[in-house]
Design brief:
Helix content is 43%, strand content 16%. It is an alpha/beta fold. Strand 4 (67-70), helix 3 and strand 5 form a beta-alpha-beta unit.
């Protein structure tokens, strides 16, 4: 198949490109102007590149593709980035969907977010694709924009575009050139004291997400959402498992969510005025204090999705950070 991937130089995009090329597909990656990760992300992989920007639909290629994977996103949780994020996550998504329909794509796989599904207040609230959006999630800027992107995809599906929606867990593993996952792991498992928020997340290996995205193109049902998730773990459990992997005996300290919430709220307004992103934003604190626990039953049943162990993922993530010199 002729495949087109937006966000291809990101961690998930890099894994997906490798998966598709390994299966013998012809892959074209959309690379934004000035992308500093592309060379490393595609190292040793046979992939064509097109320079363009989903916020500028005229820069999308004139050629058509069989499968389109829309992974490009702005993942900020700071409201100072709201205009930029809406341009990417909402308007950019509309552009990609319209372009895919005009070019006759036979499959479109759009990446969304678990935050668009919901945040739970208790660890026993394990959600699936049909979960009702929780109030805490409704107030998150990133979740709001991702839900808007999902609505655009569902509207396109009603018009006949064969689009499916993927909601991956918190992605860990190799190819984290943008160091997005590393920003989560570093305070949890390195440093003189390991710092762990009060809540929990679902963690999943980037290679399993890449496999799930490919399976969605192969057998996914149009107009359907799939949760590509792995293991529901508290931040404390991730911290302890990661410390065990690297052989660390550093103590772990829990972060008080109430105090962080107050601090983040105090810093938000002057930060917006000064165009300065504080160390913790209110949205980040809201996510860290709650539980993003999800079931992957639909993906397992309909796609044949499988998630490797969290330990294997952390072992390989740590090895990649060490091999690339990110961690010494």
């Amino acid at each position: 198949m002729r495949c087109f991937v937006t966000g291809a130089s990101g961690q998930v995009g890099s894994g997906l490109v490798r998966r598709l090329v390994g299966d013998g597909h012809e892959v074209t990656a959309l690379v934004v102007p000035g992308d500093t990760w592309a060379d490393a992300a595609f190292d040793g992989v046979r992939v064509a590149r097109v320079v363009g920007d989903i916020t500028e639909p005229a820069t999308l290629p004139a050629a058509g593709f069989d499968w389109v994977f829309h992974l490009a996103a702005d993942q900020s949780f700071w409201r100072g980035d709201e205009a930029k994020q809406r341009a990417v996550n909402v308007d950019g998504t509309r552009h990609v969907l319209d372009w895919s329909a005009a070019r006759g794509a036979t499959r479109v796989v759009q990446a969304s977010s678990l935050t668009a599904v919901g945040l739970a207040d208790r660890p026993d609230q394990v959600m699936d694709e049909g979960a009702v959006v929780q109030p805490a999630s409704q107030r998150l800027m990133y979740a709001e924009h991702k839900r808007a992107g999902e609505r655009l995809a569902l509207e396109a599906a009603q018009r006949g575009l064969p689009v499916t929606i993927a909601c991956p867990g918190t992605v860990l593993g190799p190819w984290d050139h943008g160091r997005h996952a590393e920003q989560l792991l570093r305070p949890l498992i390195t440093g003189p004291i390991r710092l762990a928020p009060a809540g929990g997340v679902n963690v999943v290996d980037v290679r399993d997400v890449a496999d799930g995205l490919a399976r969605m193109a192969e057998v996914g049902r149009p107009g359907r959402r799939y949760l590509l998730t792995g293991h529901n773990l508290t931040y404390a459990e991730i911290s302890d498992l990661g410390a065990d992997v690297i052989g660390s005996r550093r103590p772990r300290v829990g972060l008080p969510s109430s105090g962080l919430r107050v601090l983040a709220a105090v810093l938000e307004r002057p930060g917006l005025w000064l165009r300065w992103k504080p160390p913790a934003t209110p949205d980040e604190v809201a996510v860290g204090a709650r539980y993003l626990y999800f079931s992957n039953t639909r993906a397992v049943t309909e796609l044949g999705f499988r998630a490797r162990s969290a330990r294997e993922t952390l072992v390989d993530a740590v090895a990649w950070y060490r091999d690339t010199g990110v961690w010494r």
